[in-house]
Amino acid sequence: MTNVISDTNPEEAVSCFALSKNDSYVMSASGGKISLFNMMTFKTMTTFMPPPPAATFLAFHPQDNNIIAIGMDDSSIQIYNVRIDEVKTKLKGHNKRITGLAFSNALNILVSSGADSQLCVWSMEAWEKQTSKNLQIPPGRVAAPVVDTRVQFHNDQTQLLVVHETQIAIYEAPKLECLKQWVPPETNGLITHATYSCDSQSIYVSFEDGGVGILTASSLRLRCRVSSTSYLLTNPNSRVYPLVIAAHPSGPNQFALGLTDGGVVVLEPLESEGKWGTSPPLENGAGPSGLTAGATTATDQAQR
To answer: Which end of the chain is more exposed for a tag (fewer CB within 10 A), N or C?
Structure first.
């Protein structure tokens, strides 16, 4: 399965893809036309929407695989029906390219995020904008003029994880009230990505320094930190770090890192630990170890 490539520089193209709710189809783009692939046969079903503008984020409608939300480089969102090859409506509310889309079936809304550090809520019935909000940049931090902002719904379909290079925040939809905000130490470098674990109990956060933080989702408390030396075998001066995190779909303590050098590493706690940020069981009446539950010094409890 190969994407249609545009005439622009491939390094400048924004790549994006989305799986349908039953994993039967994948929709993908790399700066050119959007392709719809059949995951059973690996065949291209159709291609559509030649740029410009180019697609920058894709999401299937949770109730209908034929309806697709397409975030565009020109800051618009197109609601497209694949079956009839028609744009149902075009949503305008952002000032820069779309960098995130998340549906809530429970609230019947679509939340969008953009490179303008803004969030918008859209009704899935009339496709009208219900509200919008600019992210609260932490004091003393300066956000880049164009920065990817990602959004992901908690399993409760109400709380919204917002990922920005300066912060992790939890908002409550549909009014977009900011419930919690976590700002990492500047020594970690910028946040590159974050995601909920499959049970939405933890949040995995990756940084430019190669480290990964594991937060308790309910409180945004840092339970532990995995250092890059625990999973990187390359020269520490090579500046390899994670660009993306994917949580295991059924194992709440396992996740994968996609690295800048094209590598993929899967991490999980040591068997003696059981889960991230907990101390190993006591043996032979020995006293507690120096690594207690929630310790932020748990840097090397990952196995490849």
So the answer is: C
